[in-house]
Specification:
This is TetR/AcrR family transcriptional regulator. It comes from Streptomyces coacervatus. It holds the Pfam family TetR_N. Keywords: DNA-binding, Transcription, Transcription regulation. By secondary structure, the chain is mainly alpha-helical. It folds into 2 domains: 63 residues, Orthogonal Bundle (Arc Repressor Mutant, subunit A); 130 residues, Tetracycline Repressor, domain 2 (Orthogonal Bundle). The chain is 82% helix and 0% strand. Helix 4 runs parallel beside helix 8 and helix 5 runs antiparallel to helix 10. It starts with a helix and ends with a helix.
């Protein structure tokens, strides 16, 4: 009896891990495809192929493409929270703000090819009125709120305006890098933002 229960438990755990693994692969693959080719051009069949999941299995996890897109947005929100939390180890708010901007330097080649992963997704979903637009906006709101708090800790006036200016600068650099397919534009733009941050402290 004990061995049977143990075996059943192992099978159940294995099945749950497999289910979680497939779902995670689908969300990760969908995120990459949505970034490279956009929401409207991405199909569930393409996502299934990229994730190495049988096409029929996709509907077990996501009944519609919108449900999968929502899962991608949720995953991006979690990634943003994790990213912002990783800056807590930095010694001061100015250094934390510069660490934020350098994230776009680290992915400058990807940005030059396909644009900012956050900005392009928010832009594409902004025309929706089914709630996905507001969910996607949370990615930007998290960054703006966090940056505002850093500027407030620096003692600068109008911290919200500064946060907006900072992130608008990042997104502007991403747009230029993508438009001209030039990752160096992202790097130089972030360097200017870092000098600006230093001038405020």
């Amino acid at each position: 009896m004990g061995h049977c229960c143990y075996a059943l438990s192992e099978m159940t755990d294995s099945h749950q891990r497999d289910r979680a693994g497939k779902r995670e692969r689908l969300v990760a693959s969908a995120g990459e495809l949505l970034h490279r080719q956009g929401v409207s051009a991405t199909t569930l069949a393409q996502v299934a192929e990229a994730a190495d999941v049988p096409p029929g299995n996709v509907y077990y996890y996501f009944k519609t493409k919108d449900a999968l897109v929502r899962a991608v947005v949720d995953a991006r929100i979690d990634e943003v929270r994790t990213m912002l939390g990783s800056f807590d180890a930095q010694p001061d708010p100015g250094t934390r703000l510069k660490a934020l901007t350098r994230q776009w330097v680290e992915m400058r080649d990807l940005v030059a090819r396909h644009g900012c992963p956050l900005g392009t997704l928010c832009s594409e979903l902004s025309g929706r009125d089914d709630g996905l637009d507001r969910e996607a906006a949370k990615m930007m709101s998290l960054i703006l709120d966090w940056a505002e708090d850093q500027f407030r800790q620096m003692g600068t006036p109008d911290p919200r305006d500064l946060a907006v200016n900072l992130f608008a600068g990042v997104q502007g650099g991403a747009l230029l890098a993508n438009t001209f397919r030039d990752p160096d534009l992202m790097t130089s733009h972030v360097r200017h933002l870092e000098h600006w941050i230093d001038s405020l402290s």
